[in-house]
Amino acid sequence: MSALLAVDDLARRYALRSSSWPWSRPLTLRAVDGVSFRIEQGKTLGLVGESGCGKSTTARLVLGLLPPSSGSVRFEDQPVSSRRDAQWRALRRRMQMVYQDPLGALDRRLTALEQVCEPLAVFGEGLPAERRERARELMASVGLPRHLFERYPHELSGGQRQRVVLARALILGPALLVCDEPVSALDVSVQAQVINLLQQIQQRDGVAFLFISHDLKVVRHVSHEVAVMYLGRIVEQGPPQELLSRPAHPYTQALVSAVPTPWRDKSAERIVLQGDPPNPLSAPAGCSFHPRCRQQAPALIDIGGGRKAACHLLASS
Ligand SMILES: Nc1ncnc2c1ncn2[C@@H]1O[C@H](COP(=O)(O)OP(=O)(O)O)[C@@H](O)[C@H]1O
Ligand SMILES: [Mg+2]
After folding, report:
1. 51 lines ligand 1 (CB under 6 A)
2. Is residue 111 within 8 Å of 160, Cβ to Cβ?
């Protein structure tokens, strides 16, 4: 069986001017640079990495909100294109987005109930009374009490707003929810509630998630598989348990060292990345992590044949 979502060698480049001079040479920013992954039906892929590494751009490419520079996205065995045609509309019913800022995602002029009914009206489903009934049922199932249904977004708390956003995203019965930092704007206690809710929704409806966060602590709870992104690329991917207990890439090791885990040695040192995050406009050649990889100068080691050389690659081989 093929995957629900198949992303292959996806890239998005931006041409930016290097200075304010009109004749300056444009520089290429590789926001997403050769990303591939699969998401199976009903499963969660967690995408984690620091701010600016390309997570939101990946989300927008997956949903066809942004055309890729190269590579492909297939959803339910159909190519996702960014052309706003009938096929795109049909696919968008099955793929929905949940943003970080629920207030920004909601229309301030509509009540909570109207927000949830709206997608049904846009797709011409059911009569108004039927739409309201479906919306009320769904809102109750995501933990919104009835007395909130007629409130406007600014009259709700952050957690309540995110529940409205979720109900709105779920009302058309999607197979995939792309959640871009869905709990980052919420208090820690509310974060846990929303994460539990997402897991319940997945168990109940079999929805798959692309769950994006800069926070590995959040991602490990919800994901069946975790992909670690650095400067537009996936540098490591695997089941969360494995990735947290035996991170292979030095960047993952640094991320993991900041997460308190019961199975890691308490005395294990926290790895603080040295050096600045690289400027994506002048990304380092070769391995993009190398400027922050190993700060100490490599030792001169014997490489046989009476020769010596100083290189980390030789030392680790
Ligand atoms: N429209 C755009 N034009 C130029 N650069 C962009 C644009 N959108 C995003 N970027 C750049 O692409 C990189 C990745 O951005 P983004 O996907 O938003 O990262 P993240 O969501 O991981 O914080 C950043 O360096 C950002 O500045
Ligand atoms: Mg982002």
Report:
1. yes
2. no
Does the C-beta of 12 come closer than 6 Å to ligand 1?
no
Q: For ligand 1, say whether the CB of 15 is within 6 Å of any of its atoms.
A: no
Atom of ligand 1 nearest to the CA of 60: 17
In angstroms, what is the span from residue 212 Cα to ligand 1's centroid? 14
The bound ligand whose nearest atom lies closest to the alpha carbon of 99 is 2
List of domains in the chain: 5-283 (3.40.50.300), 284-317 (no CATH)
176-200 burial code (b ≥16 CB/10 A, e <16): bbbbbbbbebbeeebbebbbebbee
Question: What does the pLDDT look like over 55-93, one tens digit per residue?
Answer: 999 999 999 999 999 999 999 999 998 888 888 888 889
pLDDT digits (tens, 9 = 90+) for 227-239: 999 999 999 999 9
24-33, 58-67, 300-309: which has the minimum mean pLDDT?
Answer: 300-309
